[in-house]
Amino acid sequence: MDALAPKETLITLSNAGVQRGARTLVSGVDLTISRGEIVTLIGPNGSGKSTTAKLATGVLRPTMGSVTRKPGLKIGYVPQKLTIDWTLPLTVERLMTLTGRHAAGDIDEALEAVGARRLLKAAVQELSGGEFQRVLFARAMIRKPDLLVLDEPVQGVDFSGEVALYELVRQIRDTTRSGILMISHDLHVVMAETDTVICLNGHVCCRGTPSAVKRSPEYLKLFGERAASTLAIYQHHHDHEHQDDGCVVPDGHAHDHGDHEHDHHDHAGHGHAH
Ligand SMILES: Nc1ncnc2c1ncn2[C@@H]1O[C@H](COP(=O)(O)OP(=O)(O)OP(=O)(O)O)[C@@H](O)[C@H]1O
């Protein structure tokens, strides 16, 4: 971010939480997201990441604390799961218009921005995990949101696809200057460009830059000995090339994975979550 530019705050959560009956789903969350900023929520299953994101977007109202949003804030959402009848034929073009009418030019522009314009007429069922995620990004970006919420953006994607998707998130942030709230359910990679990582465990366990969180005693306590290797930080360096669609040029073709901290990297169980 330009350090001299005034920060435009999009969303503020102050000591926010949700209680359902006697049960506290999440509590005491302080969080701000400004334009051009990337905030990533991490934490174990059931730790309150989705609940916190729902508080931020207004899907859920806080029963404790407060949540404020910039008036007229436009939010683009990339869901973790999409309910689609996978037995029916569906093109990318049609998927882009399922939840609203858009001019052909706007659809082209949104797909272009994610390197997926050539997929316009493709069947959604035949897309790779990475291509499918890109189309979902385009679908979320078509209304030119102030804030993009990405719920597990790299699911169903292999390692080089993951690198390319994180690169795309960085590009989107740089070109649109939208705020980005990411939820990382698998804890495996946090983008180095993340301005703030918030580690939840029913409350805010710890927060800070990715490398600060990785070293924090609370984080180590929560995730144990293997924590430091579990939180891999994806570093972006311009030492590799990208194909036109944003994919990283494979090893041996002017690309080197050496700059990515990836000691522990488990893709088991990643599939299309439909
Ligand atoms: N509508 C609801 N009513 C009651 N409890 C809920 C509701 N939604 C979520 N919960 C509970 O709130 C807690 C936090 O859930 P949440 O979905 O925010 O966790 P999460 O960190 O996103 O988990 P995961 O990584 O497994 O998706 C969980 O214990 C969950 O069972």
Automatic annotation (TrEMBL):
<dbReference type="InterPro" id="IPR003439">
    <property type="entry name" value="ABC_transporter-like_ATP-bd"/>
</dbReference>
<dbReference type="InterPro" id="IPR027417">
    <property type="entry name" value="P-loop_NTPase"/>
</dbReference>
<keyword id="KW-1278">Translocase</keyword>
<protein>
    <submittedName>
        <fullName>ATP-binding cassette domain-containing protein</fullName>
    </submittedName>
</protein>
<keyword id="KW-0547">Nucleotide-binding</keyword>
<keyword id="KW-0406">Ion transport</keyword>
<feature type="compositionally biased region" description="Basic and acidic residues">
    <location>
        <begin position="252"/>
        <end position="274"/>
    </location>
</feature>
<keyword id="KW-0862">Zinc</keyword>
<keyword id="KW-0472">Membrane</keyword>
<dbReference type="Pfam" id="PF00005">
    <property type="entry name" value="ABC_tran"/>
</dbReference>
<feature type="domain" description="ABC transporter">
    <location>
        <begin position="11"/>
        <end position="226"/>
    </location>
</feature>
<keyword id="KW-0813">Transport</keyword>
<dbReference type="GO" id="GO:0005524">
    <property type="term" value="F:ATP binding"/>
</dbReference>
<comment type="similarity">
    <text>Belongs to the ABC transporter superfamily.</text>
</comment>
<dbReference type="InterPro" id="IPR050153">
    <property type="entry name" value="Metal_Ion_Import_ABC"/>
</dbReference>
<feature type="region of interest" description="Disordered">
    <location>
        <begin position="242"/>
        <end position="274"/>
    </location>
</feature>
<keyword id="KW-0067">ATP-binding</keyword>
<keyword id="KW-1003">Cell membrane</keyword>
<dbReference type="InterPro" id="IPR017871">
    <property type="entry name" value="ABC_transporter-like_CS"/>
</dbReference>
<keyword id="KW-0864">Zinc transport</keyword>
<dbReference type="InterPro" id="IPR003593">
    <property type="entry name" value="AAA+_ATPase"/>
</dbReference>
